[in-house]
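Design job #97: recover the sequence.
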């Protein structure tokens, strides 16, 4: 795991850690060994995963950063799930799924003395309405883990200021996390600096040592998190981002042979204005589709 920090490609290192060397390595153990017997091992493994991620990012993580990193992407995280936090859920799910079949084979009820401690552990991590009291039906690990993530997400949100709340809310928007799982090939490849800055901004980690006057616009304060970059229009950056998004979608439509037209005039009667970025004729049911793009930032004030 430690060698991932020596790859000199943080995007590839993070993906390898995520898909090959983190939670997935522990799933078999936490589904087959009661959590109370494996907690210490899980803690050591989780610590090693976080240390590796810190090495890839070349930066330490705060307790809030760690909570976000360990959340699933659905809740704005990276998906480096904690094996310790999800161990009880994994064991409960595994046991509840095989209990009926095993009892049929054995022709007698199974008494599992470790189950109560696993249920107590799981229930201590979720709100009252999500607690599990019995194993009358099989319980899916995906659902139990999602309940833990939701509780962690609520706790994280309660600890954050309003800017970080907005940031995490946007991180959890559909498809917002796609870049974190993009393979480093062709146009999806980040430079090392791009990836590190993007990841730090995703997690709310400062990218500057102190506030200073912005060297681009020369009249605004650059905050340590670099939020100013995203909200202040200068050098046509916002237009460049808008056009890049538009062109990406245009290429997609071209590849599908939908005959897209950029900024088509006379869409509205008696007007040569171009209200749409892209027009797709006969998109569905005899009607065309008009698509317009806007670049906004979740933390801008207006
Ligand atoms: Zn500026």
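Job complete. Output follows.
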């Amino acid at each position: 795991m430690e060698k991932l920090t020596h790859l000199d490609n943080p995007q590839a290192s993070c993906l390898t850690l995520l898909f090959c060397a983190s939670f997935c390595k522990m799933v078999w153990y936490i589904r087959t060994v009661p959590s109370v017997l494996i907690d210490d091992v899980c803690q050591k493994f989780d610590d090693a995963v976080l240390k590796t991620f810190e090495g890839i990012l070349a930066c330490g993580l705060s307790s809030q950063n760690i909570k976000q990193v360990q959340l699933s992407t659905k809740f704005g995280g990276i998906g480096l799930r904690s094996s310790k936090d999800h161990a009880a859920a994994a064991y409960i799910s595994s046991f509840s799924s095989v209990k009926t079949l095993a009892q049929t084979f054995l022709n007698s009820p199974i008494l599992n003395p470790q189950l109560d401690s696993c249920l107590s552990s799981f229930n201590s991590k979720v709100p009252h309405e999500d607690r599990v009291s019995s194993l009358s039906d099989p319980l899916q690990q995906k659902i139990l883990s999602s309940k833990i993530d939701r509780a962690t997400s609520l706790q994280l949100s309660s600890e954050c200021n309003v800017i970080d709340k907005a940031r995490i809310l946007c991180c959890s928007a559909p498809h917002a996390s796609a870049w974190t799982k993009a393979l480093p090939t062709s146009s999806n490849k980040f430079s090392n600096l791009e990836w590190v800055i993007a990841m730090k901004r995703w997690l709310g980690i400062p990218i500057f040592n102190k506030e200073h006057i912005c060297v681009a616009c020369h009249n605004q304060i650059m905050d340590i998190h670099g939020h100013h970059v995203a909200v202040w229009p200068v050098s046509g950056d916002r237009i460049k981002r808008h056009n890049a998004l538009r062109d990406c979608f245009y290429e997609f439509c071209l590849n599908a042979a939908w005959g897209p037209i950029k900024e088509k005039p006379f869409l509205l009667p008696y007007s040569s204005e171009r209200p749409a970025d892209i027009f797709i004729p006969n998109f569905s049911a005899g009607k065309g589709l008009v698509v317009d793009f806007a670049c906004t930032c979740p933390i801008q004030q207006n």
